[in-house]
Amino acid sequence: MKHLLSAAAVIGLFAALPASAALAPITASQSLQNIGQCVAVEGVASVRPDPQRFGTIIDIDGEHSSFLGFIPKGNEGQFPQLASLNGQQIRITGVVHTYLGRGEVSLADGAQITPARGANASDTTTHVGPQFARTGSPNAACN
Question: What is the predicted pLDDT for the residue at 12?
Fold first, then answer.
């Protein structure tokens, strides 16, 4: 019964979020407070190769900031705009994990990177919990 009530609460919470709900952006420094959560992080992009993991890193707000997006080698084709991102205000959406003490979102789909747009009045959620990362969320990048 307890699990049934928990499931009902999760379904009820999900139903309360409109399908078109957008995540309000957080900053690079806030990413570490949202480990395991689906978030949208906005800031200035710096694109560079990652020689240790053989992929591409997109630092948000500088190489030594607290957040980055990581594109594994071979997935760069999913991001045709990659070369044009340097110095641009962007939004990276996904589930935050840690890598060497920094927040990181693994990038597999071009839809996870969009131009930054700042917070809107319609952006009522700053993150969604792990249950949405597993079962569906208002943002397809976190499914």
Answer: 39
8 A C-beta contact, residue 94 and residue 121: no
Q: What is residue 4's three-state secondary structure?
A: helix
**119 residue type, one letter:** A
pLDDT in tens, 7-32: 433 333 333 333 334 678 999 999 99
Structural domains present in the chain: 2-142 (2.40.50.140)
* Torsion angles phi and psi, residue 104, rounded to 5: -145, 140
- Cα–Cα distance between 46 and 61 in angstroms, integer? 7
Considering Cα of 64, then 26, then 96, then 76, what sign does the dihedral take? negative
pTM for this entry: 0.73
